[in-house]
What does this fold into?
Amino acid sequence: QLQLVESGGGLVQPGGSLRLSCVASGFTLDRYAVGWFRQAPGKERGGVSCIRSSDGSTHYADSVKGRFTISRDNAKNTVYLQMNSLKSEDTAVYYCALGRYYYCSDYVEAVGMDYWGKGTLVTVSS
It folds into this structure.
């Protein structure tokens, strides 16, 4: 069964950190590009970061550059998103997604993603 399950969300104060995880079941993860996306209340879903399958290169939306880090552990079929210096505007539901032929760039577009998780909620508030 193909499944993506995110975890690690929660409530954190501004300036704090969280690490999100995405476990991919039923996939051979190293064959896929992986992305993290988020949707804040009342807003459209937007791209956060992605990592290529070919060379492991990473890309980030401008709003998170220097604060977030995406990584992958293919042996564990898991992708991570380390989020530091969190701001209230980072509050959103975060989703991971996989794309077999996804083109990962700084635009972090959703087009080309084939599989999506159900999301994990991150709330940044004092």
About this structure: The two ends are 39 Å apart (CA to CA).
